[in-house]
Amino acid sequence: MSSEDPSQGDGLARELQRLMRAIDAGGRAVLPRSNDALLQSIVEAAARIFGGAAASILFVNEEKRTLEFRVAYGAANRHLVGMSFPLDHGIAGYVAMTGQPIAISDVQRDARFNRDFAEATGYVPRSILATPLLSGEHVIGVMEVLDKIDGASFGMRDMELLGIFAGQAALAIEQSQQMDGIGEALVIGLRRLAASDPAAGTPELLAALEQESTSDAAEAGSSQARDILALADLFNDIGALGEAERQACLQILAAFATYARSRKRSW
Amino acid sequence: MVDGPARPAWSQQFAPAAIRDLTASGPIAGLTPEWAWGGSTGQGVRVAVVDSGIEHDHPALGNSVRGGVAVEYDEHAENDVRIDPDDPPSDVSGHGTACAGIIHAIAPDAELYSVRVLGTDMRGRAIQFAAGLDWAVDNEMHVANLSLSTSRQEYYGLFHQLADNAYFKNVVLISAVNNLPAPSYPSLYSSVISVAAHEGRDPLLYYYNPAPPVEFGAPGIDIQVAWKDKQYLVCTGNSFAAPHIAGIVALIRAKHPDLTPFQIKTVLWACAANTRRV
Known about the structure:
The complex is a heterodimer.
Chain A: H1 6-30, H2 35-49, E1 52-61, E2 66-74, H3 77-80, E3 84-86, H4 90-98, E4 102-105, H5 115-121, E5 128-135, E6 138-148, H6 156-196, H7 203-212, H8 223-241, H9 243-265
Antiparallel strand pairs in A: 1-2, 1-6, 2-3, 4-5, 5-6
Helix pairs in contact in A: 1-6, 2-6, 6-7, 6-8, 8-9
Chain B: E1 22-24, H1 33-37, E2 46-51, E3 65-73, E4 81-85, H2 95-106, E5 111-116, H3 125-138, E6 143-146, H4 156-168, E7 172-176, E8 193-198, E9 207-208, E10 216-219, E11 223-227, E12 231-236, H5 242-255, H6 261-270, E13 275-277
Helix pairs in contact in B: 2-5, 3-4
């Protein structure tokens, strides 16, 4: 990245090109073309594995502060998709707000629970197991499995297993979204870098990446794409302050990485 | 598909077959549940429920709710949070009301304070939570029930500082451990009383786990709880185990106001259902 060391810059360019090719060749082939097809297969699997009569995935819309049914399987599925309700509403809203799963049985005892939802769909579940779809600490959605077929309620073991299952689902969703956003994010990050320090830019790579990029849509892209942008911006700002600041920034990041790894080992 | 005990990772220590017998000897063996909380109703003890709020007029709560605040994320405010009065206290989801109902059932004369830190703005949850915890300590609560947590490592230091501050200012923090097999703060700190769920029904029956981090197991599986809009639900989660211990601590604090947080943890240990006193 430094203009004083051209070989390092070439290395970075080659590495980025390799990364982009790998994503293009491998990433998209691994995942279904349609995000919804992937999600649909996830909820069907969840319903079958946990013995639920129905299952659904809701996405969080942080700006509107709503949850929207993205896919559903089983009872009332056609009515659900596309419906949204406020985040402070019902069990899924609680799960989204806290990032914690919950299991509830005996829901029909009181029809006031999610009344408008129930009236709109004509379906009130007896039991619910709901768990967050987490991207790191960030709640991107909620997965619900409804009405345990062979029991009165979902147990804590179901809760733990659905949590693990949802972790996999969230990874798949995130990865699928990243495929769309990561290329654009890199282009924007590199463009900003080139604009602030022309010597540090890699014009050929940039031109190549621009061709792959459709737009600056990554500004509103996946959370990881936004993180990459934010990191590029921060590093750029700090680097502009001087070599000592850039080194300090690297050392802080390295120290945190060491700390984070050691914490993971203890768990 | 689902075999074995119906518990999450943090509750496995409280499966009947996993509970280990402990022995209290010497003067500590003299600490009995009767001594610790017999005859206590929690009178005069202030309990903060740091959660989604409390529905003040839910029939499960009697007249126990004495006040409340709402901690809102606000980029323009100092430390990015704004603390507004929430009068009368309300609940955005029902979860805080569930916790409050459990505490009230055990300690009917304890005074409950709603510290609402959950809302629909998801940007500042950890900061709201931290500010709510800070409010509970500043406002001289005796007990704070925390049926929520963060697993964000960047807040490890902040919550550790808050937990230490509570400990030194004589505020007992009761924290539910994560329902998912992941670390959560502040439940992992040693000054905090961390709680997971067991399948028992007796609200005063709890166990101690000699292999922490999670130290106590209390009822939290398929139990009826109060919920928003004056309703009741049957729920499962470590969230509902913590307020059982919070209620018991409120009883102990009312009867023995001089006990400090570490002494209270010792009393809880000595009075656990799996501790044999010789």
